[in-house]
Specification:
371 residues, alpha+beta, Beta Polymerase, domain 2, Four Helix Bundle (Hemerythrin (Met), subunit A), 3 domains, 5-stranded mixed sheet, globular
């Protein structure tokens, strides 16, 4: 059996001799640290370069049939791991250090661990939910491939797609539960048992994805697991107590959007339908999202199927897109004028100050006296 730590000692000694100022951290993680190593286990070790020259110590090699990958993690990626943007969080959280260049490097590394320890804080809940939602988006790419693969879709390819979707579901569920995995391939289920939020039929779907001989069954299991996870994300987000605030979300919004409203008025007056189409749709959707955020304290979910528009219609804002007509622009033009007046009044009532001036002199007086 290869003495993997003797191998690590050789590398660390070489770094101390030739790359003293170029490598900040060397550490190891995985099976040897967790006491699960077998005779075929390699040493999962990494380093953080301190300079571009430090990257030269990277090396992949094999000793007596055992593979080694001494790979670099930049400080930027280590920071993403600490915030769960990169889901290899356990590498930073649970590793053992073999070499540290300086006290400053150690302090920086321990700061990353402090960040990881805050993952479960309520202040990070919405961030983690949003990241989970972003990961599930990638599942839909796999589902689209199922739909359009045609003759290329066979059992082998369906299992590859199922593997991709399952991996993203695993990651999304960890984010949703504000945690991370300490073991990866083939060891997810034992960690699922500790998750409070997970699809009811998670095990059943995974069994189908792994064992079924039917492409259609695998596809259906992938769809169900994706949609069930998406539902849990939406449910979790909707339970958060958001802070209603027009000041936080809509300060400066109208002043910026006024340019697009003017563009739409011009398009109506000149009969330019293509401009009217894109600008009207953009204005209506933007305002609907901003009103939703101001009222609920959170941005509409990535997979919100238009529910956020309810607040827009509740306040009686005009349906610009329904008024698009290449033969008659006048109803749309009148609706835009109505929207301008209504939005100005709405924001004033909510205490949002509008920076509107009747002249350059009036603006100058405001600006030069601005604190």
């Amino acid at each position: 059996m290869v003495d993997v730590f003797a191998v690590a000692d050789i590398i660390v000694k070489h770094i101390k001799t030739h790359y003293t100022q170029d490598v900040a951290i060397v550490g190891y993680y995985g099976s040897y640290l967790q006491g699960r190593a077998t005779e075929r286990s390699d040493l999962d070790f990494f380093f953080i370069p301190a300079t571009p020259r430090g990257k030269q110590v990277e090396l992949q090699f094999i000793i007596d049939g055992i593979s080694f990958d001494f790979w670099p993690i930049g400080w930027d990626r280590a920071e993403r791991m600490s915030t769960s943007e990169d889901w290899s969080t356990t590498i930073i959280a649970d590793c053992e250090l073999l070499y540290v260049r300086s006290e400053e490097d150690l302090a920086r590394f321990m700061k990353l661990r402090e960040t990881i320890s805050s993952i479960r804080e309520p202040s990070n809940t919405l961030t983690m939910i949003n990241r989970a939602e972003g990961v599930v988006r990638d599942c839909f790419t796999g589902l689209v491939k199922f739909q359009f693969a045609g003759e290329a879709m066979d059992l082998s390819f369906s299992r590859i797609l199922a593997h991709e979707i399952a991996a993203n579901i695993f990651r999304a569920l960890a984010l949703l539960n504000q945690t991370y995995y300490t073991r990866m391939w083939g060891h997810y289920r034992e960690q699922f048992r500790d998750l409070l939020i997970k699809p009811d039929e998670l095990d059943l779907c995974l069994d189908t994805m792994m064992f079924s001989q039917s492409i259609e069954e695998i596809k259906s299991a992938c769809e169900k697991l994706t949609l069930d996870t998406l539902y849990l994300i939406s449910e979790r987000k909707n339970k958060l107590a958001g802070l209603r605030s027009y000041q936080a979300w809509m300060k400066g919004y109208y002043e910026e959007e006024k340019g697009m409203l003017n563009k739409l008025l011009t398009a109506c007056e000149k009969g330019h339908y293509e401009t009217a189409f894109f600008v009207a749709a953009g204005i209506q959707d933007s305002l609907a999202r901003m009103l939703y955020a101001a009222e609920t304290g959170r941005w509409p979910g990535m997979f919100d199927l238009g529910e956020y528009r309810e607040i827009y219609h509740r306040f009686g804002y005009p349906d610009l897109t329904a008024l698009l007509d290449p033969k008659d622009f006048e109803p749309l033009r009148i609706a835009v004028l109505q929207m301008i007046e209504q939005l100005e009044n709405h924001l004033r009532i909510e205490g949002v100050a509008l920076n509107q001036f009747d002249s350059v002199a009036e603006f100058e007086s405001f600006y030069v006296n601005r604190v």
